[in-house]
Write the structure tokens for this entry.
Amino acid sequence: MRYLSVAFIVCILACLGCSRSMHKNEFSRIDSLIQKEDTTALLVLDSLGKEKENFSTSDKMYYNLLLADAHNKFFISLASDTFMCDVVNYFLSHGSDEEQMKSLYLLGCVYRDKGDVPLAIEKYNQAVGKADTTSLNCNYTLLCRIYAQMAALFHNQRSPQLELKMWAKAIPYAWKAKDTLSAINYYEHSGYAYDMLGKSGKVTEINKNAYRQYIACGHPEYAAGCLTVMINNEIKNKQLKQAKKHIAEYINYSGAFGKNGEIINGRELFFYYVGKYYEAASKIDSAQFYYYKLLSYPNNILNVEYSCRGLLSVYTQKHITDSVEKYARLYADIKDSVSFLKSSEEITRAQALYNYNENKEIASKKTKENKQLLFLIQSAIIILCIIGIISFYIVRKKVSRQKRQQKIENRKYTSLLFRYNKASEELKSMQSNINDYMKKKEEDIKQLEEQLSIYKYTPVNYENYQQDPSLLHISIVKRMHEAARHAKSANENDWIEINEMVSSLLPDFYLQISQAGLTKQEQRTSILIRLNFIPSEIATLLDTRKQRITNIRISINKKLFQQDGTAGLDEQIHAI
């Protein structure tokens, strides 16, 4: 039973694995041919379609997606393609983001070919909503094409502001797709929107830039294709010789004309500019011929509008009243077409609804992100406050303990120092005739010297100190000992006073430390050592830590005596 179960599971997995892999290689080849604009793709699709009845659901949907993509690529109308709604529903449930984007785009193309512009715009907007521009695998080629399709629809609906918004997205995405020709082409076409807005200077600037970029890329045929705006501008400025040259360049290099001399679909407006040229050159009959030629292509409402405008101008110059009235009425009807305006309003509403829904979704995401960010910030602030309070109390406790220890140490030292000084004075005053008392005091002094030596880095010969005991009686020295005793730092006036005292009473010493390149802290430390202040007193008076005083002593010993460490520093300073 166990082996049968395993075999059954393996069979199911194999069937599932084969459900879409039956024609995977063929589909990949067809997709590659479509991207290369190789019409062989249509033949392969036609041949493969004969087996369509045996396709799995996934294969059938992918085949239909490729078929619609090929029709769209090779300008075959999608109006009769009835399967795209099913394709979209399938890929929205089972497809990747790119497959969903492509299926929605092609459904939009179906509505475009059916003439349902609002629905086409709606599907195009849904398609771009599926694009993940943060992904490295984002299909920027398809994305820029969708925006270009929307721009073209907005242009045909005479909505230049919406058109420019689409070009503003299509152009950078074309550059991201490394599709240089498309990027330049989209830039060129954005000029027509500015033309509708009456910004002729901007239109001329764009077309000249596009012309130069096409030439730089080695495509004179595309450069010639964007000459119509320049021709129009030259006609307005009476530069007819230059306009004639550019008309010839357009005819010879643009590729707008087929083998039989017929103009390619979508390029018919060129006849309007030729007519304008002949009209400006006072060749009214020739101008009339080209305006009528443009009117023979009524498939595009712009062709009819421009041809009526031209014929109205021609018949006005010929003073043929009936024809003037006829084409004036036709031109007015086209400009004020109810169905045209209705379609334009619908497309604007569709775009506005999409923008509203998109902004609403963005706002919802932003609100959620802001709440999460606010929670994180609040949590971080609370944690930092707790850490700050704990750190403050720990540091405060440590500093308080250090100050307490320094205060006790300083009090003991100051007491011993003053007792030593007092005993020394008593010894001097009683040296004559009081031998016993002198002997006792000598013992006291020796004992005090031993106790004082505990507070020094190195033993000091206190006989040297006895040579200038008057230093201890100076008020500033007493005040600083008392300040250290009460754990108070010296103020700036104290330092000024003690500097003046040392420079006056110990000039050689003061001169040497002043010229040795010592820092202010090092000079002050040297003076305090010379006046027999211990490290804890020095740390208190300088408002710093004892470890810092140790580092300062090392630096002083290096600068004054070129010795490492602190050994012998006190003796050498006293010897100066």
Summary: The CA atoms of residues 461 and 561 lie 19 Å apart. The chain has a mean pLDDT of 83. The two ends are 104 Å apart (CA to CA). The first helix runs from residue 2 to 18.
